[in-house]
Specification:
Length: 320
Amino acid sequence: MLKKISIILMCLLLAASAFSACAKKGENTNDESTTAGGLEGGSTEYGFEEDEDGNTVPVVYEDGKAYEIDDNGNKTGREIKNPKNAPSGSSTTPSGTGTGSNSGESPSRVTERETPSNNTEDEKNTTKSELTTLPIDKDVVPSTDATGTAVQFSDDDISTLTNMLEVPYLYLASYENNESVPISIATHTACWMAERQNLDTNTFAGGALAVDLFCYYARTVVNFKSQCNNYTSTGAASDAPISYDAANDTFVITANSYEEPTHRVDITSIEDLGNNNYYKVIADVTPIDSSCTAKKLVAVVQKNKLDMSLGFSVKALKWS
């Protein structure tokens, strides 16, 4: 079941609480007071956990326990057993650095592009506020066919988006926001997000990496844990070097190095699609790996703060 989470709730969680699994250094903050939609008081801690079905859900931590909350921030009555992302100071078990118990040597990291060309810098129109603000019932994600007003993005944002869209083998699948995120590309995204944690290990806590994927796509990758190995086992096409160990609830990077680039993206224009900080990214694609036949990319992205170091999530992709 795909969990729909209010954007307002996301912003409040980020402002008021311990978004520890998304904050790659394992830090938790709790120095702001918030009252809205059932979220009250700076002493209350919020975060994300996985439910019994493997879906990432928002929770409130109270008296050493984690309780699922709904789109309005109210408790649903469901308790999350054995929470892994509890904030520091809670009597529940904290997630720590995100590593597993069988961690090995860290794979070699791959250098990202730092200064891609900014082809939007001459546009007259600029972007809106960075934070998303609409409740879920008014949030409408545009399709890749939508059109908007060309806008200017900063060099830093262009660099971030370019690297997000250059996740190795991301071109293996297209999807619209009303469709599930394809697990075939989520496996490669998981490797990329694990690399960004910059930890000296090849083993990552299952809950932490699932939340990493949530941050990249701004949605749960349904059945990712149970299906991951089907797309990464020996003989799988364009398999990612990652496997899931259900016994320990950990993901392991199985190669000596993270994945090398398979394609390059040159963003040619970005259009403001309105509603809730949605933008259409149009780019030329240059293949590196022989499996890439795409020449063009249209992506719908949202400017948000689900991952503080990225500031964007990818809502839809269309390769052609």
